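Long-time lurker, first post. I've been practising inverse folding by hand and with some scripts of my own, and I keep getting stuck on stretches where the structure tokens seem ambiguous. Below is the full token string for one chain I'm working on. Before anyone asks, I'm not after the true native sequence, just a reasonable design that respects the backbone. If someone could post their per-position residues I'd love to compare against what I wrote down in my notebook.
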């Protein structure tokens, strides 16, 4: 559905996007992660045919951005991080106005608008003035707008930017629903945790370079050099930590209050001896689990040495 080959954009001596290679298929929800100014928006605008690359190529549903820009715009829904709205319209009027620009005419136009309002859970605001909407509600209406013409590809630039926690959750739920509808979605963000449970794939961009691209579990695996265990026993945590230090698979032990933080030697996957030894020594386990790697940890680990 989306394929880029060495996609590059320069502004004078500044390389905003440097030879991005990306391939996404139907149903992928791709989290485009990176700090502000890293090249996310520039990449998305080139894919949407709103900005011409200096080098490289991009294909949307098999069509080149150079030769089929008009067709691509019918296939793509692009939602910028900030977009204007017409304050003197109701929500339904606003959507009907844009549906008309997509040449959705006749009695079917209102039906399409109603369907998209239902999709983004905004039917209850259909007759409200756009000017009365909260930031989160405005974002949802913006998402409904870019879906009016049933695009196969959605490019969402920082859709959760500036939203309160509740509105962020609502946007995340919407993104999950889009994946279920088999849309191919690129969603950019510099707030890493908000994408962890939404995306099927993630790409990390830094200074215009795509540092890593893969499925979420693959990225987590690359970021974690060693398994870290969180262990809590019912009593005598210090004695338990001394016992664990003697185990051959342990690289490092440290204490945080009554929690034992055990780092295994790099490459160790089997640590079944640890709970066995603790139980045989008379310790009762209250907690024994692997410490999870989140996207923020992964980003910091995988971009080491590239942010200077």
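-- Answer (accepted) --
I ran through it position by position. Result:
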């Amino acid at each position: 559905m989306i394929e880029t080959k060495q996609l590059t954009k320069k502004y004078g001596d500044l390389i905003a996007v440097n030879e991005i290679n990306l391939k996404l298929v139907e149903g992928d929800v791709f989290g485009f992660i990176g700090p502000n100014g890293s090249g996310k928006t520039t990449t998305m605008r080139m894919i949407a045919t709103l900005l011409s690359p200096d080098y490289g190529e991009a294909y949307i549903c098999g069509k080149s951005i150079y030769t089929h820009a008009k067709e691509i715009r019918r296939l793509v829904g692009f939602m910028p991080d900030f977009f204007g709205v017409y304050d003197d319209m109701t929500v339904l009027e606003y959507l009907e106005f844009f549906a008309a620009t997509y040449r959705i005419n006749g009695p079917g136009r209102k039906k399409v608008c109603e369907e998209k309002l239902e999709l983004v859970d905004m039917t209850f605001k259909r007759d409200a003035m756009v000017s009365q909407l909260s930031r989160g509600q405005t974002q949802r209406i913006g998402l409904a707008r870019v879906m009016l013409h049933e695009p196969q590809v959605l490019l969402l630039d920082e859709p959760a930017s500036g939203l309160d926690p509740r509105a962020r959750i609502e946007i995340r739920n919407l993104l999950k629903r889009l994946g279920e509808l088999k849309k191919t979605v690129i969603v950019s963000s510099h707030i890493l945790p908000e994408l962890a449970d939404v995306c099927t794939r993630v790409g990390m961009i830094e200074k215009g370079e795509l540092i890593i691209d893969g499925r979420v579990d693959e990225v987590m695996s690359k970021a974690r050099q060693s398994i870290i265990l969180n262990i809590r026993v019912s009593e005598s945590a210090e004695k338990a930590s001394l016992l664990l230090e003697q185990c051959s698979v342990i690289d490092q032990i440290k204490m945080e209050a009554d929690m034992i933080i055990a780092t295994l030697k790099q490459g160790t996957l089997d640590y079944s001896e640890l709970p066995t030894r603790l139980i045989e020594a008379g310790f009762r386990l209250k907690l024994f689990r692997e410490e999870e790697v989140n996207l923020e940890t992964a980003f910091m680990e995988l971009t080491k040495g590239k942010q200077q």
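A couple of notes from the structure itself: The chain is about 30% helix and 30% strand. The domain at 225-292 is CATH 3.30.70.100 (Alpha-Beta Plaits). Happy to go over any region you disagree with.
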